[in-house]
Amino acid sequence: MKKNYLFLPIVFLILIFACEKTANDCCLFSTISELDTSKVNRKVLVLGIDGIRSDAMMQNNAPFMFALSNDADVYFTDSHITESITYSGPNWSSILTGVHYNKHGVSDNGFDNPNFDTYPTFFDYIESVDSTINTASIVNWTPINTHILSSCTDFSPELPVQDIEVFEQVQDLLVNDAPFNADMVFVHFDELDAAGHAFGFSSDVPEYSATLNTIDSYVENIFNIINTKRINGEDWLVMIVSDHGGDGTGHGDAQNPYINQTILIAQHPNLIFKNQHTSNQCDLAPTILKFLGISNSNFDCQKDGISLFEE
C-alpha cells in the first residue's frame, strides 16, 4: 500500500513538469466539455460588422443599433477593446476563441501559423458537447470560414459573397430553416470596412455613413426575425460586435482610440449583464458558452475573457 501512495505524487509531479516543458499551464485540466441540460434549447446569434468606428454609430447613421444600445436589457459599450494588432485576422480569431493573439497565433490576415488545435473556437466546444446542435457561419470575408471555422461548423459557405447576399442567406437560414433549424449562427458583414478603406472611416464621409445605414437595416431585419422566434418560445442571445474601428482610410495605428476601440452589444430580454465591465474581444466566447450551459475546465483555465453575465 505504501508503494501505491508514493506512486501517486510522483506521477502528479511528472505531469506538472510536463506542463512546464510545454508551456501549457492548463494541461492538467480536462478537455471534455459538459452540458447543462436545463439550457440545451438555448440559441445564439452573433452579428459581426467589420470596421465600426464607435462614434459613427449615431441615430442618423444606424438608427436601429443606436436605439437598441439604449435599451434596458442590453450590455453596450462604445469602448470595446480590440486586440493590440488591429487587423481583422487577429481580432475575429480572438472573438471566436476567447484568447488573445499571442495564444491563438494569428497576428495578421495571412493565418500562417494558427494555433487553433490548442485554443479551439467556441464552435468546437459546442460541437464536441452535442453534435446535434446546428451551427452556421455566413460571412463576407471568407478567411473566417476557410481558416478559422471550416472544420467545426455544420454550415459555413466559403464562396465570396456581398453583404446583401450574406443578409439573404441568413434570412433564408432563420426563416426557412435552409439548410436546417439553426442553433448557433455567426454572421459577418464586410462592406463597412471596405467603405472606410476606400473613402474614410468617419460619419462625416457619406459613403461610410450610407454603408453603415444599410448594414443597420440588415441587422434590424435579422433582429426582428429573432424576436418572432422568441415570441414562438425560442430563447435567443444576440450579440453585435466589430473587429476594429478606423481613422482616415486605415486601421493600423493600434494606439489610436478611434481604431483600438469599437462597439459591442449583447441583448437578452431576461438576463442581467455586467454593465460596469469594459469588454474586450475575448469576452464573447465565455459569454456564449456560459449562456449555452457548456463548461470545459481546460477552456476555463486558458481563456482570456470573462462572461458578461452577472452570476
Q: Any chance you could write out the topology, listing elements then pairs?
A:
Layout: H1 2-22, E1 34-35, E2 42-49, H2 63-69, E3 74-81, H3 88-97, H4 101-104, H5 122-129, E4 135-139, H6 143-149, H7 163-176, E5 184-189, H8 191-199, H9 206-231, E6 235-241, H10 257-260, E7 261-267, H11 284-292, E8 294-295, H12 297-302
Parallel strand pairs: 2-5, 2-6, 4-5
Antiparallel strand pairs: 1-8, 3-7, 6-7
Overall description:
The protein folds into two domains: 1-30; 34-302, Alkaline Phosphatase, subunit A, CATH 3.40.720.10. The longest helix has 26 residues, at 206-231. Residues 1-23 have low confidence and may be disordered. Helix 7 (163-176) runs parallel beside helix 9 (206-231). The protein is α/β, with parallel strands linked by helices. The chain has a six-stranded mixed sheet with strand order 3-7-6-2-5-4, with helices on both faces. The chain has a two-stranded antiparallel ribbon with strand order 1-8. The N and C termini lie far apart (44 Å). The protein has twelve helices and eight strands.
Task: Summarize the entry for a quick read.
The protein is of the alpha/beta class and 311 residues long.
List segments where confidence is low: pLDDT < 50 over at least 5 consecutive residues. 1-23
Shape: globular
At CATH level 2, the architecture of the largest domain is 3-Layer(aba) Sandwich
Q: How many DSSP-defined strands?
A: 8
Key terms:
alpha/beta; Alkaline Phosphatase, subunit A; 2 domains; disordered N terminus
